[in-house]
TrEMBL record:
Domain Cytidyltransferase-like: 12-191
UniProt entry tagged with the keyword Membrane: no
Entries under SUPFAM superfamilies matching the protein: Nucleotidylyl transferase
Protein name (record): Probable nicotinate-nucleotide adenylyltransferase
Pathway entry: Cofactor biosynthesis; NAD(+) biosynthesis; deamido-NAD(+) from nicotinate D-ribonucleotide: step 1/1
Primary enzyme class: transferase
A GO biological process held by the record: NAD+ biosynthetic process
Keywords: ATP-binding, NAD, Nucleotide-binding, Nucleotidyltransferase, Pyridine nucleotide biosynthesis, Transferase
Pfam families: CTP_transf_like (PF01467)
Taxonomic source organism: Nitratireductor arenosus
Length: 193
């Protein structure tokens, strides 16, 4: 786990990053700026229970590729889930909070993940562990409010203009951040290769 200090605002941006690409780097950049984060943990997961693991590149390769496209020193590429044998996001977030008292965390995810977020293991617990920033992705801008999660946690949504306060806001809290979008997709990159 990357080193942090009490009082820091830290975003956790998890994914398989199979492969990582400029669209992921754009999400990291937007998150650092709009959420006013001190650090962003680029969390490369060993696997995703909702995705086909047979097409997954080795973890070491995805870590190396992620480090190559994240020059900002505030971005800390990590795979601590593998060392702790963690499989589900809720367990990851609980560990991060438990190990780092006094740090204000935000879970960061692309808007394309919001549509199926209610299928994630313990998704309601994730909403209760830390605030969530949902970053705009092509094709998800207009449909995000109709998702099961957005409807279930409508009252916990904060205005995008207050995104810089999200890390300091008690969970459940979430916001949707509009901005530049990348049409790049790891699936499309794998299929083209």
């Amino acid at each position: 786990m990357p080193h942090v200090e009490r009082g820091m605002a830290v975003g956790i941006f998890g994914g398989s990053f199979n492969p990582p690409h400029a669209g992921h780097a754009l999400v990291a950049e937007i998150s650092l700026r709009r959420l006013r984060l001190d650090q962003l943990w680029w969390l490369v997961t060993p696997g995703n229970p909702l995705k086909d693991a047979t097409q997954l590149a080795p973890l070491s390769q995805r870590l190396e590729q992620s480090e190559a496209i994240t020059p900002d020193p505030r971005v800390k590429v990590t795979a601590f889930e593998a060392a702790h044998r963690i499989r589900y996001t809720a367990d990851t977030l609980e560990l991060a909070v438990r190990r780092n008292p006094g740090v204000d965390f935000v879970w960061i995810m692309g808007a394309d993940s919001l549509a199926g977020f209610h299928r994630w293991q313990r998704w309601r617990d994730i909403m209760a562990i830390m605030p969530i920033a949902v970053i705009d992705r092509p094709g998800a801008t207009l449909s995000f409010l109709s998702s099961v999660t957005a409807k279930a946690f409508n009252r916990a949504r904060i205005d995008e203009d207050e995104a810089s306060l999200l890390a300091r806001t008690p969970a459940p809290a979430w916001t949707f951040i509009h901005g530049p979008r990348s049409s790049l997709s790891s699936t499309a990159i794998r299929n083209a290769g």
